[in-house]
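for the recovery benchmark. tokens below, seq after
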């Protein structure tokens, strides 16, 4: 696992996300560019590790300036420049598209990418405070969970929908990796975290859910609170999020290097002072605070 701070990339530029992924994903031996001639500002990337049963393709349409559409595919034909086999191209509960936001020129954006053998995490932060009074972040996850059954190939994507493609507005401030206000009905999809899997353990595409207080029978829509993570001795308990399938209500795996923080922005900053964008070292491992504004729960993401 490697963390790269790549600076103020992806500000209002077609092809900016593709350039970043082209540069950093192939630094890991299990990631490659699958189709270098797929089209202008189109990126196609394969993750393949036969020994660990990870094999999927990420398609990125990076033709717009401030956002990109992404898709998961089972395979890809680099001659026909087309996906092959199963795919997830929408949020699964509507026709809306899986979306990464890139930012706008009115914000000072910094970007980082964490590349692992079987997934990557893309993190951006801005300083625009017009909507919520706190810094805004957007964090996306593509690839495998730490699966409870590695015989199952179950790549996932955590992102936004294309209902609103503005980085920082009343609904769009929510960071997807914080997994607050996820919604299977689509009624609040403009601000929801979108969690989808190309395959669940049965081989079907599936909407996914965060733990929701570890109670799979709760309502699958809306906000929830997660456990407090600071002990009475002042230590931080690192307990990474688990993810389950909407289809089967079974836990699929652990969201690698992501810890959910409790409550809203005020309680997040209270638990994790000095708060937003801070970095904590726990037993030699570095974790960064993301999200945590007045519309967010907050999360820790592992940097090393």
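predicted aa per position
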């Amino acid at each position: 696992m490697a963390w790269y701070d790549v600076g103020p990339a992806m500000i209002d530029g077609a092809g900016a996300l593709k350039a970043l992924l082209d540069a950093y994903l192939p630094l890991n031996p299990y990631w490659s560019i699958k189709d270098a001639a797929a089209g202008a500002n189109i990126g196609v990337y394969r993750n393949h590790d036969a020994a660990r049963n990870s094999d999927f393709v990420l398609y990125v349409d990076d033709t717009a300036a401030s956002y990109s559409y992404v898709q998961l595919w089972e395979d890809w034909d680099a001659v026909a420049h087309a996906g092959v086999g199963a795919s997830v191209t929408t949020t699964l509960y509507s026709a809306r598209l899986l979306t990464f936001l890139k930012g706008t020129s009115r914000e000072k954006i910094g970007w980082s990418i964490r590349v692992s053998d079987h997934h990557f995490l893309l993190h951006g932060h801005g300083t625009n405070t017009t909507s919520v009074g706190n810094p805004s972040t957007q964090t996306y996850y593509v690839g495998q969970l730490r699966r409870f059954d590695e015989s199952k190939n179950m790549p996932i994507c955590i992102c936004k929908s294309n209902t609103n493609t503005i980085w920082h507005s009343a609904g769009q401030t929510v960071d997807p990796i914080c997994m607050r206000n996820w919604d299977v009905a689509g009624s609040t999809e403009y601000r929801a975290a979108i969690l989808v899997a190309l395959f669940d353990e049965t081989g079907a595409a599936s909407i996914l859910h965060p733990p929701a207080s570890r109670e799979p029978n709760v309502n699958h829509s809306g906000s929830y609170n997660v456990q407090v993570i600071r002990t009475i001795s002042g230590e931080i308990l690192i307990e990474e999020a688990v993810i389950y399938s909407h289809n089967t209500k079974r836990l699929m795996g652990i969201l690698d290097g992501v810890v959910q923080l409790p409550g809203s922005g005020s309680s997040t900053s209270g638990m994790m002072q000095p708060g937003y964008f801070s970095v904590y070292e726990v037993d030699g491992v570095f974790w960064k605070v993301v999200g945590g504004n007045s519309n967010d729960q907050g999360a820790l993401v592992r940097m090393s």
